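Lab notebook, bench 4. Still working through the backlog of constructs that have no structural model yet. Next entry is a single chain of 192 residues. Request: give me the structure tokens for it.
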Amino acid sequence: MQHTLAADDGLIRKLWIAEVDIYRDHLLRLDRDSRHSRFGGAVSDEFIREYVGSTYQLNVVMHGFFVDGTLRGAAELRPLGPAFAREAEAAFSIETPWQSHGVGSALLDRTLLAARNRGIRILHMACLANNRRMQELARKFAAELSFDFGSVVGEVAAPRPTPLSVLREMVADGHGFATAVLDVQSRLLKPT
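Model written out:
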């Protein structure tokens, strides 16, 4: 019997600044079509290396989808404008075997929570007009889509933060951090 991949087969947690290499390696593993969808066109390995170097700014919040300790999907939340911006951009990258299995939905859910808790009211998700997966993901979360010059922009209005939403993010971050520490420890203890 063949096992079907699902978001439940992995762990979603925040990516930390020390994990820049993990994020770079994930983006470099994307196949041509996935890379094209993520960046809106063909990009080189060098472009990805430079992009990742600029990604880890203080205001960018990143979540990753890990399977057996390897990053297989990622979501970026980039505020648009100065500190305490009310709008942000969300970008997603998921390696092919994990596409269409709920990973994007799980990452968007976590990204919406982070946006909400940072007072972000509008979340922009830009994608190419032929990126049906991203359009379906935006529709699933009640985004209004508008078509502009061959691309699609989804806007999701995030509700205001509440003590419960802040606590939910803190618990998820604590669980993710503990799991990451245990994962590193188990890899260090494996016999070589």
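Notes after review: The CA atoms of residues 105 and 137 lie 6 Å apart. The beta strands are 11-14, 61-67, 70-79, 87-94, 122-128, 144-148, 151-157. Flag for follow-up if needed.
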